[in-house]
Design goal:
This protein is α+β, with helices and mostly antiparallel strands and about 170 residues long. The protein folds into two domains: about 100 residues, NusG, N-terminal domain (Alpha-Beta Plaits); about 50 residues, SH3 type barrels. The protein is built from three helices and eleven strands.
C-alpha cells in the first residue's frame, strides 16, 4: 500500500463541517479507517469586537475546503468525490488530485514533526541566523505547530515581539 498524503477537496461554502461528518460516517460504514486516516476543517482562534465587546471565536482557515489525509486510489477517489457537498478535488486535473507537500502543511500550521526544544517561555535566547542575527531576547510564546518562538527584543527603547524559527535560536548561557 502506498503512503498516505494530504489532499484538498472543494465543498459548497458553509458545508465544510457537513462534508467532514459525511466522510467520517462513510469511513465508519465502509471500514476505510486504514485508507482515510483523518478529515480536517482547519480552524483558527480570532478575536471579534462587536459593539465594543471582545469575543473569542473560531473561524475556518480555508472556507469552502476540507483537508483529507488518505491513501489515494480509484475507489477512495470515487467515494470522496461523490460525497454529498463535495464539488471536487483541488488540482489541475480532477481525476488525479495533487497532494500537499509536508512543507505546505507546516506553513499552514496544520502538520509538523514533533520537535523537542531545549528552551521554554521566559528563557533568554540569541538569534543565530537571519535578519535578527546576534539579537538577544526573552521567549514570550512557543508555537510547536508552526515551529516558531515569539521573543521580546529591545528595539529603539521599546519591547517588540519578533517571531523566529526554532532552528534560528539558541539558549544564551
Amino acid at each position: 500500500m502506498s503512503e498516505a498524503k494530504w489532499y484538498v477537496v472543494h465543498t459548497y461554502s458553509g458545508y465544510e463541517n457537513k462534508v467532514k461528518a459525511n466522510i467520517e460516517k462513510m469511513i465508519e460504514n465502509r471500514k476505510l479507517q486504514d485508507q482515510i486516516l483523518e478529515v480536517s476543517v482547519p480552524m483558527q482562534d480570532v478575536i471579534e469586537v462587536k459593539n465594543g465587546v471582545r469575543k473569542h471565536v473560531q473561524k475556518k482557515m480555508f472556507p469552502g475546503y476540507v483537508l483529507i489525509h488518505m491513501v489515494i486510489n480509484d475507489d477512495i477517489w470515487y467515494v470522496v468525490r461523490n460525497t454529498r457537498g463535495v464539488t471536487g478535488f483541488v488540482g489541475p486535473d480532477s481525476k488525479q488530485p495533487v497532494p500537499l507537500s509536508d512543507e505546505e502543511m507546516r506553513s499552514m500550521g496544520i502538520k509538523g514533526e514533533d520537535v523537542v526544544v531545549d528552551f521554554e517561555v521566559g528563557d533568554t535566547v540569541t538569534v543565530v541566523t537571519g535578519v535578527w542575527e546576534n539579537t538577544t531576547g526573552v521567549i514570550k510564546h512557543i508555537n510547536p505547530h508552526k515551529q516558531i518562538v515569539t521573543i521580546s527584543v529591545d528595539l529603539f527603547g521599546r519591547e517588540t515581539p519578533v517571531e523566529i524559527n526554532f532552528s534560528d535560536v539558541k539558549i544564551r548561557k
